[in-house]
Backbone:
């Protein structure tokens, strides 16, 4: 009878060990799943930030097309875009602080791609310490209007958000 009691105790201990292992595995799996969810949420937040920055950049009256183009698309005046790229640099502190308030830790570049074969790139805004950080990049179509030649250039606005 004594051996039978010992066997039942061993069975109970074995069941408790298996249950403990299953609980630990469940906790580890839940932790890993939560970590993966947080990474996905962080990526989504960066994308939302990039969209917000694109809306702010597209709505800047300083660079909007003056009159000729009204297709409903985001349109930048070429010469105004060139001018803003020169004043939104860290060497101009009063302008840089204003644009930092709008665009935070990001870089906004307009790549003109069609119809010219020799594409021009204009960096509209660049965060000063944008070298070695995690970056999320988003692209938005825009039109750059050159009022002298009255030419529309299809362009891509590239927004890099740093964290």
Residues:
């Amino acid at each position: 009878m004594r051996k039978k009691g010992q066997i039942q105790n061993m069975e109970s201990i074995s069941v408790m060990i298996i249950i403990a292992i299953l609980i630990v595995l469940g906790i580890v799996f839940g932790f890993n799943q939560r970590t993966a969810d947080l990474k996905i949420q962080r990526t989504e937040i960066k994308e939302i930030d990039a969209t917000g920055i694109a809306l702010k950049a597209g709505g800047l009256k300083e660079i909007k097309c003056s009159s000729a183009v009204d297709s409903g698309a985001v349109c930048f005046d070429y010469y105004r875009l060139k001018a803003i790229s020169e004043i939104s640099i860290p060497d101009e502190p009063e302008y840089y602080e204003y644009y930092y308030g709008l665009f935070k830790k990001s870089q906004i570049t307009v790549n003109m791609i069609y119809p010219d074969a020799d594409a021009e790139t204009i960096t509209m805004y660049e965060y000063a310490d944008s070298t070695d950080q995690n970056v999320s990049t988003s692209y938005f179509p825009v039109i750059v209007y050159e009022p002298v030649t009255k030419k529309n250039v299809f362009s891509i606005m590239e927004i890099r958000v740093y964290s």
About this structure: The longest strand covers residues 135-146. The CA atoms of residues 39 and 93 lie 35 Å apart. The mean pLDDT is 82. The chain is about 50% helix and 25% strand.
